[in-house]
Protein: glucose-1-phosphate thymidylyltransferase
Organism: Pontibacter populi
Amino acid sequence: MMQEVAGIIPAAGLGSRLGQMPFSKELFPLGFKAEGTPKVVSEYLLELMREGGAEQVCFIVRSGKWDIPGYFGDGSNYNMAFAYLLMNRPYGTPFSVDQAYSFVKGKTIVFGFPDILVEPADVFTQLLVKLQETNATIVLGLFEVEHPHKWDMVETDKAGNVKTIVPKPESSDLTMAWCLAVWSPEFTEFMHQDLQQIEPQFIVGERKELPMGAVIQAAIENGMIVQSVCFTGGSCLDVGTPEDLKKAIKRLT
């Protein structure tokens, strides 16, 4: 039986790739809602999470990004419950995600990045089904990408088991990258304990920033089952760069 489903959205980034903006990048207007009003980029991820059964979502924000809770409020407009947590360990996405540990431990997690547009609409539903069917600890959503150096590339076996995650390689024969994930309480606990052990390296400056893929790779190396679903007919578009933002604007307007 699956635990309660909760979403985690890391929204603490500076958005520096897009240059100076008058608002948080997660609130960039992109397309329109059914009623004709403007839609912001992170609403697409929220819709995916709601479709996957998430009833509550934790946004991890940094001090100063108060426009995000100001825009989304308590979540009632989305038939969900929203919470906002402050990032206090600026060492990468896993540390931001771990900020929600006390609130989500014991729950099944749906996770995505608020500046990546993903199709199809039932991605999280498919990932959660795979999580149950395979008894995996984590299931990654994989998509074909044109530029491996922008993504965490993923090597799997024929059964879909993730063997290796290669972060942003200069070149690669791998064609599939991950940009969504669901995981069990076991991974939430593993990540929490793993980050506690390695955090001193970041505090003293030995390491600077930890990507999410590195923690997933550590879970693989510790014997956890990491599965995947390949969405070969789907798409993922990171709108965090000007060139890809232009593509998204053309697609949605």
Observations:
- The first helix runs from residue 41 to 51.
